[in-house]
From TrEMBL:
Transmembrane segments: none annotated. Pfam families: Lactamase_B_2. It comes from Halodesulfurarchaeum formicicum. This is UPF0173 metal-dependent hydrolase HSR6_0910. Belongs to the UPF0173 family.
Length: 237
């Protein structure tokens, strides 16, 4: 599985021959790319409807959009997107070579329109190279994108033991999501081998030094390796 961080919460994920893009938002200081520079993904996954997560959805109208039914319907109507998949919390769908499981995130999800519509429950995604089950989740390679979230016990009680992610991208910006200390606890609860900070330094309210996150992870006793990626950097898991 290949992962590329394009800053903020925007990740490109390749599983065998399937390309996915999560939360396309390229107006951030960690990427030098424009949406046109990115290979058109097979699927675009949306965690929720805030502008800094869906701003560049209109640039990917040839992709299939995957989101909660409410958010999928919104982008279909707003941007004229033909192909959408509405899924919901706890569900797993096969997207090409990837198995994608949606899980809750503790956040808000109002779409910033004149009528302030709801995008349904905010979410995170576990992306695996095989459908995870309690018996063979450890045999899968799984990347967990936590979305915009607070620390929540589901990370310890459900996502970690059931989906068994190998790597996780967690927000550390504070103010709107977890900060470094709570994100470090999330990493420990998830039991991942690798952790990637995201959703920081995009604007003043979420300015953070990722070294604080790295120190906080060590303080929990977690054995996870913290990878602080440069924008547009690619890693393999």
């Amino acid at each position: 599985m290949r992962l590329t961080w394009h800053g903020h919460s925007t990740w490109a994920v390749t599983v065998d021959d399937t390309d996915l893009l999560i939360d396309p938002f390229f107006d951030n200081p960690h990427t030098a790319l424009e949406p046109i520079d990115v290979r058109t993904p097979d699927y675009v996954l949306l965690t929720h409807g805030h502008a800094d997560h869906i701003a560049h959805v209109p640039e990917f109208t040839e992709s299939t959009i995957v989101a909660t039914p409410e958010l999928a319907a919104y982008v279909a109507d707003e941007y004229g997107i033909q192909d959408t998949i509405g899924m919901n919390l706890g569900g797993t769908v096969e997207l090409g070579d990837a198995a994608v499981t949606m899980h809750r995130a503790d956040h808000s999800n109002g779409i910033e329109t004149d009528y302030a519509s709801s995008g349904g429950m905010p979410a995170g995604f576990a992306i695996s190279d095989a459908t995870p089950t309690p018996e063979d989740a450890a045999e899968c390679t799984t990347f967990y994108h936590a979305g915009d979230t607070a620390l929540m016990t589901e990370m310890r009680e459900v996502i970690g033991p059931y989906l068994d992610p190998d790597a996780a991208a967690v927000p550390i910006g504070d103010h709107y999501t977890m900060g470094p200390e709570q994100a470090a606890i999330a990493v420990d609860w998830l039991g991942v081998e690798r952790a990637f900070p995201m959703h920081y330094d995009t604007f003043p309210a979420i300015e953070q030094d990722p070294a604080d996150f790295e120190r906080a992870v060590k303080k929990t006793g977690s054995s996870a390796t913290v990878d602080v990626l440069d924008g547009d950097e690619t890693v393999e898991i």
